[in-house]
Amino acid sequence: MDNQPQKKELGIEITKETAAGNYSNLALITHSNSEFIFDFARVLPGYPKAQVVSRIIMTPEHAKRLLLALRDNIGKYESQHGEISLGTPGMPKNTIPFGFNPNNTPEA
User: Fold this and answer.
1) What is each CA distance from 43 to 11, 24, 103, 106, in whole angstroms?
2) Residues 4-48: pLDDT tens digits?
3) 41 closest CA partner among 108, 107, 98
4) Where are the annotated segments for Disordered (predicted)?
């Protein structure tokens, strides 16, 4: 007899709209005691506001699984393509491209 647990496979479905994806160059993250909220936004040159293109809400456990999966995938990416640089030469580290500074909120 085989006492090994059977592997269960999860089928994933994706709509055409979701498969097209949304481009994001800014992520905002907040949390409560029961959930993490990830807002993915797009910052465009010359626009004073970022447009949130997707909001994902996760339990703390799933957020930590996401962290571990990202850490693993970034490690694999960097071993194949080299280290990902976080800075742009001549640009302060807290500045997002296009001249938008998250510490300096523009007036509406």
Assistant:
1) 34, 8, 15, 13
2) 778 889 999 999 999 999 999 999 999 999 999 999 999 998 899
3) 98
4) 83-108
